[in-house]
UniProtKB/TrEMBL annotation:
Primary role: May play the central regulatory role in sporulation. It may be an element of the effector pathway responsible for the activation of sporulation genes in response to nutritional stress. Spo0A may act in concert with spo0H (a sigma factor) to control the expression of some genes that are critical to the sporulation process.
Boundaries of every Response regulatory domain copy: 1-117
SUPFAM superfamilies per record: C-terminal effector domain of the bipartite response regulators (SSF46894), CheY-like (SSF52172)
Pfam families, per database record: GerE (PF00196), Response_reg (PF00072)
Taxonomic path: Bacteria, Bacillati, Bacillota, Clostridia, Peptostreptococcales
GO molecular function: DNA binding
PTM annotation (4-aspartylphosphate): residues: 52
Name of the protein this chain belongs to: Stage 0 sporulation protein A homolog
Residue span(s) of domain HTH luxR-type: 137-202
Keywords from the UniProt entry: DNA-binding, Phosphoprotein
C-alpha cells in the first residue's frame, strides 16, 4: 500500500497516476495534511510514502520525524519543489530513501520507485551536483566543534556566559574559551556579531547538530 502526502489535490492525483504506471494493482491512499497522513499510516499497512516537504501551514518533515520516532518500517520518497540543500540534508538525516524535485520527468520518478523497491537510494541528479556549494559562512560552520555549535546556538538565544555554562554543565571560564575559539574560526569580533551570524545560519547550525547526534 502506498501513501501520497501533498496539500495539492491535483499533485496527489498526478503522482498516483504515475505510480500506477509501474504498479497498476497497488492501493494508493491520499493525504492532504500531516495529521491525515499519520492517521492513515496508523490504520493501514503503508509500504511506501511519497511526501511533499512544504505543505500548507505545516511541514512534511513533521511526518518524516514521526515515522522515524515510531520506527515504522516504510520506504519514504520525498518529491518536492524544494532544491534547498538544507532541506535535502535534513531529509537524509531522517532516513529518506529518495529525494526528487517536482519538475522531474515521469521516467525519473518511475525509475526512482524501482530503485527504492530494490533497497537502493535515489536522489535528484541536479540536487547532488549542487550539494557542497554552500555559502562561505556555512562552510565556516563546518570548522566548529559540536560544543562550539551548542555554545553559539545558546548565545543566539541571548544567554549570558553563566547561563550557557549552566545549561552545558561547564564553567563560565570554559564558555569564554569556546567563544574565543568561535570568534577566531568565524572571523568575528564580539558577541553581537556572533549572535547575528547564528541568526543568519540557524538552520545550518541546527542541521549540523542533528547530524552529529546520529554520527
Amino acid at each position: 500500500m502506498v501513501l501520497v502526502l501533498d496539500d495539492h489535490p491535483i499533485a496527489r492525483q498526478g503522482l498516483e497516476s504515475i505510480i500506477k504506471i509501474h504498479k497498476p494493482d497497488v492501493q494508493i491512499l491520499q493525504a492532504g495534511t500531516v495529521k491525515e497522513g499519520i492517521d492513515l499510516t496508523e490504520k493501514s499497512q503503508i509500504d511506501m510514502a511519497f511526501i511533499d516537504i512544504h505543505l500548507h501551514n505545516e511541514s512534511g518533515f513533521d511526518f518524516l520525524e514521526w515515522v522515524q520516532e515510531k520506527e515504522i518500517d516504510m520506504k519514504t520518497f520525498v518529491i518536492t519543489s524544494s532544491s534547498n540543500e538544507n532541506d535535502f540534508l535534513r531529509a537524509k538525516c531522517l532516513g529518506i530513501d529518495a529525494y526528487l524535485l517536482k519538475d522531474a520527468f515521469i521516467d525519473d520518478i518511475v525509475y526512482g520507485l524501482k530503485v527504492v523497491e530494490r533497497g537502493g537510494k535515489f536522489y535528484s541528479a541536479d540536487l547532488i551536483e549542487n550539494v557542497g556549494n554552500a555559502s562561505e559562512e556555512e562552510k565556516k560552520i563546518d570548522m566548529l566543534t559540536r560544543r562550539e555549535i551548542e555554545v553559539i546556538t545558546l548565545l543566539r538565544k541571548g544567554y549570558s556566559n553563566a547561563k550557557i555554562g549552566e545549561v552545558l554543565y561547564v564553567s563560565e571560564g570554559t564558555v569564554k574559551k569556546h567563544l574565543s575559539n568561535i570568534f577566531g574560526k568565524l572571523d568575528l569580533y564580539n558577541r553581537a556579531e556572533a549572535m547575528l551570524f547564528a541568526e543568519r545560519n540557524s538552520e545550518k547550525l541546527q542541521l549540523t547538530l542533528k547530524q552529529s547526534e546520529i554520527s
